[in-house]
Write a structure and sequence with these properties.
Layout: E1 9-11, E2 51-53, H1 68-80, E3 85-88, E4 92-95, E5 100-102, E6 107-110, E7 119-122, H2 137-145, E8 149-152, E9 157-160, E10 171-173, E11 193-200, E12 206-209, E13 220-225, H3 234-240, H4 252-255, E14 262-272, E15 275-278, E16 292-295, E17 300-301, E18 304-311, E19 327-345, E20 349-367, E21 372-378, E22 381-387, E23 390-391, E24 395-401, E25 409-411, E26 414-415, E27 421-423, E28 432-434, E29 437-441, E30 443-444, E31 451-456, E32 473-475, E33 478-483, E34 491-495, E35 503-505, E36 508-509, E37 513-516, E38 522-524, E39 528-530, H5 536-543
Parallel strand pairs: 1-39, 2-3, 3-6, 4-7, 5-10, 6-18, 7-18, 10-19, 17-19, 18-19, 19-20, 20-21, 20-22, 20-23, 21-24, 22-25, 23-26, 24-27, 25-28, 26-29, 28-32, 29-33, 31-34, 32-35, 33-36, 34-37, 35-38
Antiparallel strand pairs: 8-9, 11-12, 11-16, 12-15, 13-14, 13-16, 14-15, 30-31
Pfam families: Pect-lyase_RHGA_epim
Protein name: Rhamnogalacturonase A/B/Epimerase-like pectate lyase domain-containing protein
Amino acid sequence: MGTPAAQAQDTAAEVPAILGTGDIGRDDYLPDFSYAGYEYGVAPIPHVAREIAVAEYGAVPDDGIDDSAAIQRALAAAHALTGPVRVQFAPGRYILSDILWIERSGIVVAGMGSGEGGTELYMPRPLNQMDDDGTLDELRQYLVQYDKRERQRDANLDVLFSEWSWSGGFIWTRFPGGRHATYLDEYDPPIETVATIRSGARGTREIEVVDPAALAVGDVLQIHWHNRAGENGPLIASIYGEDREGFPVGDRHWMLPDRPLVRQATRIEAIAGTRVTIADPLLHDVSDALPAYFAKWDHISDVGIQDLAFVFPPSPYFGHHNEAGFNAIYFTGVHNGWISNLRIENADSGVLTDDLAAVTIADVVTEGDHPAHYAVHMGNVHNVLVTGNEVFNPTVHTFSFNTQATRSVYHRSTGWEQPTLDQHAGANHQNLYDDMTVHVRAAAGDDGEGSSYELFKAGGAGYWVPGHGRYNTVWNLSVVVESGAAPGETVTLVENSGGPDARLVGTHGNRPLAIDYEPAPYIEGLNQRQLAVPSLLDFQLRRR
């Protein structure tokens, strides 16, 4: 793993060895993360010119009157149109006490900026006082049926988890009638198979299908891989490796074989006979031993939320999984969408996600003294890019790759208040922390052998362990130790719930660093700031 240096050293001349030739068959395989984001990483967020002003429907800022009904009328008018449309707010404060649903493609909700002189949405009451139209009833049933409770005996707390702990938002996107978060298998609808895939190689974009008749260029579908072979099936091996001695794999990976364990939403780019080109590289091989198929995916597209501040009142913190629902955005069921230029204050969670692909979340600032569950969260998503996320508020899970997140990226973001890189268990794999900065206060070791910080502090249920699958990558991480370690003292970055085949390249800081991570990861350039390739995402984009 190398010996910690006195302080971070720059390595400008050498490209890291793991980049190699890009051979997808190598033992030190590194996924191509450059497909994360809107339009698979190669197009800017669009401007939507057609406008509906909320003022035309009676929403007046700064008058102290609740604006919910007027905003709802403006949003309903946008839904009644066809084609892209921007629902535009003026500068000032609007009071919102209801959920704003976005349920069709092409709708953008926009303000005049997130800073001083911009647009502020003020939510005086939490979501647990709102009508969610029954959308979370399945989750509520699940919590009761499986007795999912937050138990803290020392605090005399024993309550059912809040359904708002990781779900819901005051702006909420969804496919009409869609079920983007799945909890109880009795509600699973039949999966509509579009085409069976005969073969394909991990990391490539060309596949062979049995019959392409039902496919068309431009179709956005999901590729499904199921684990129908139990605890030691080939899909488990593809996610976690052949050698799993020393770490368990939770039984949720094989208890529901009719549910896909891995889903990759992608677009059909070309069809030539039975050969199909997809928009982004395959997550896994497809073969007789590892079968997969194209499935229908209900989603909306080209949806955006931008240039707004979300402000919640100061409120008590009732603890983990006991949140009342001061959540800004719940982004679900979207392909090719964006969230940009937001400020979120005093939230329980800033941005929550589910069932997304090819989405960019850019320049979101979360702040305030209220502890949050999540800042900007990624769960059950594929090819999502979070860039420029500044997290000033305390969080339980700061930068979170949650259940079934795949090939998504946190990029050039900073955590300021005891942040965590949360790899949350549940078959999340092939994800990237890229050119990140964390500000930490280290803790003195009990044995007098130096200080440590539990940076890789993961969550997740035991039936979904380990914390992550293969090829999760941390690239050029800067660790700013603000206190707790003397100059020259080594600080150990601790992981206590990780997973196999992690890649840690260019981890450095203002103190010498050591890494305590199991199973043992690939480590290159410890205590060396990577200048030759400061951002893996940017490097891979240029190489495309």
